[in-house]
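Q: A reviewer asked whether we had any structural model of the full assembly, not just the individual parts. We don't, so I'm hoping you can provide one. Inputs are below.
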Amino acid sequence: MSRTWQILRREYLENVRTKAFLVGLLLTPLWMGLAFLLPALADKPEEETVVIVDATGRLAGPLRERLELSPRPRWTVRVGPGAEAFVAGPDGTRPVDRLIEAAGRGEHFVVMIAPATLEKRPPRPGEPEGLIAGPSGAGALQTARLHLQHHVTDLVNQALARDRGLSEDDVRLLQREAIAYRAVDEQGEQVGAAGMLTPLIFMMLLFMGVVGISQMLISSTLEEKSNRVYELLLSSVSPFQLMLGKILGICGVGFTLLALWSGGGVLALALKGMDGLVSAPQLGWFLVFYVLGFLLIASLMVAVGSACNTLKEAQNLMAPISLLLALPILLGVTVIGNPNGTLATALSFVPPFTPFLMMLRVASVPPPPAWQVVASVALLAGSTLLAIRLAARIFRVGILLHGQPPSLRQIVAWLWRAPD
Amino acid sequence: MTAAASDPAVRFEGVTKRFGSFTAVDGVSFAVPRGGIFGVLGSNGAGKTTSLRMLMNIFRPDTGTIRVLGQGVDEALKARLGYLPEERGLYRKMRVAEMLLFFGRIKGRDAGWLAPRIDHWLGALGLSGWARRRVEELSKGMAQKLQFAATVVHGPELLVLDEPFAGLDPVNRDVLRDVILALAREGTTIVFSTHVMEQAEQLCQDLVLLHRGRVRLRGALEAIRAAEGREAAHARLALKAGATLDGLPGVVHASHRGNEAELTLAPGADPDTLLRALLERGSVTRYEVREPSLHEIFKRIATDGAEPVGPASDGGLRP
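A: Here is a predicted structure for the entire assembly that you could use as a starting point for your response.
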C-alpha cells in the first residue's frame, strides 16, 4: 500500500503543481459564469419601434402611454395616420400597406386598430382589418409581439367592460389570475426555477471531473512510456500498484478541482441565501458517483494510454469511445424533462452512463425510487472492479511494449491471458 | 532468512521464457557468487535483458526457478535490489533531489534515511549543484548518472545494471566505473550486463555468456580464458597497400580491427615466425602474446555455434 501511496502522491503533486491546473481551476468557472452572464449583459433592454395606426381614434393614446412606460422592451412609439391610412391612393395602394412592407423589412411593428378590433369580431365586408404586423422571428421579437398583443387586448377588454357598465374594480378583478402554480419538493417546500438548473450543473461538473480529468491519464501514461521510465518503476512496484497509484492520483486531482468548484458554488449560494438548492445527500451522491465513475472511465483511459505509443494512436482509439461517453450530455436535456421516464431509467442502469444520468435524476424533483439508486450504484461498482482488473491486464503488457502498436485483436488476447 | 551467507546471490536453474513462438531464454542455469561483479554477456537478442527482467520479477519464467538473496523472486524482494534497465528514463519535470527521494520511497525508505544518501550520491556523481534543478535541464550524461543514483539511493544488496555505460562519454564512463567498483568493494553484489566484451573484461570476476537464449560459457573469467587452451598474438600494425592477414603461419583465426589485430594461434605455433611474417606485410609497433580476449572467444562461439562450455570453477553452477 505504501508503494501505491508513493505513486499516487507523485502523480497527484506533479499534476496539481502545474500552471495548467491553476489555469483550469480558475478559468473553467469563469468560462461557465460568462456563459450565463454574457447573454444577460449583452441583453440590454431591446429598443423596438412601433407605429400605431388607429382607425377608431380611441386606442392610440392609451396604448402609446402604456408602451412608453414599459421598461422592457423599450418602445419608440409613432402614431401614424388614422382612418385615412386604410384608404387606397391613386396608385391603388393604401398608406398602411407601405407600413406593413417596412415591418416586413424589420423596421418596426405596425399596430392597426380597426372598428372590428374594439368589438373583438371579424371585419365586415369593406371594413379594414385590425392586426399587428411585424417580422417573423423568435426570442426578443416574439416577446415584443406578445407584449403588443397583451396591451391591445387589455385596453380593448377595459373599453368593452366600460361600455357594458362594469366598474374599474370589476375590470381589475376579471383580469386577475384565479389560481397559482407552485413547484414543490418532497418536503412540500416551494422550489424555485433554479431547481431545473441544479441537476444539470451537477451532471456537467461530474462530466468534466470524470471524462475531462481522466483523459490526463492517457497523456501521463504515454509520456512515461515514451520517457521509458516504466522499467525503472517496475523494479520497485508491481504493475498493478503502479496503475492503481496513477489512477488514484489523478482521481485526487479531479476531486480537488470539483471540491474547490462546488465548495465555491455552495458558498456563493449560501451567501445569496439560496443554500436550499443543494442538499447534503446530493453532495454525498455526487462524491459516490464521482469516485466510481472516475475509476471506471479512468481504467479505460489508462488501458488506451498503455496500449498506444503516440498521442495520435491514442486519439484514434479514443474517438469512438468519446462519442459514446458524450451520450449522457446529449441526452441530459431529455432526461431532465422527464427524470423518471423509461429512457432515463433504462440508460441510468448502463454503467458508463450511470454516474451522469443517475446524478441528474437524484438531483431532480421528484427523485428516483431508492432501490433504483442503490441497484445502479451496485451495478456501477461491480463494473468498475471488473474494468480495473481488465485494464491491469492491458497495462502490464502495454507499458513495456514499444514499436508497432498492438492490434485490437492482440489487446483482446491480453485480456484473456496476459503474457508476462 | 534461512540462506547461508555462502549461498549464491542469484541462482538461475533451468529457466526458460517464451514469447509466443519465440524462445528468448532457453533452459538457462548459472549462479552469481555473493560480492564482486558478475557479467551477463552476449550479443543483442541473446536473452540478457529478458533474464534480468525475470530476476527483477518484471517477467515470470515459464519453467525453471530463480532464487535471489536466498529467497524466491517476489514483490517484497524488489526493495533489496537496484535495477538500472537498458531502456531507461526519468520524470523530466521533477527536480533532481525530489526525484531521488521518490525512487527511494517506492523502495520503502523514508525521507529521513534518504536525505544524507541523496546528498552523498549527488556528490559522488558530480551532480551536487543540481539538486533543485529540473531533470529536463540536465545534459544526457548527467541524466544517465542521475539514473544510476536513482538505482542505488535506497542501498540495495544486489545491483543489476543493464548496459550501464551505453551512451556515456569517456570521462563519465570512468566516474561511473569507479563508483561501481567502490560499491563492489563495500560488498554489494553487482550483476552487470553488456555486449561490450572489453568492459566485462575490465570489471567482472565471473560471468555467464548467453547466445540465442542459451548459456555458452559460464564461470570465472580467468578459468574461461585458461579453458580456451590457446594463445593469441595481439599486434598493433600498419599493413602495406594490398596486404592482408590471410594465410599467416600458425594462425587459426585472424581478427583485424583497423590499427590492431588479434591472431589466435594454433597449439604449438611459434610466435617469432608469426612476427617475421607480419613484418613482411607491414610495420609492427607492438607485439604481445597472451590469452585470447573475451571478444575473440565470444566471436568464435557466436559464429561457430560451439556447444555450451562450462569450465570447472567455483563460479559455475553447482548442481
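A: Points you may want to mention in the reply: The mean pLDDT of chain A is 85. The radius of gyration of chain A is 32 Å.
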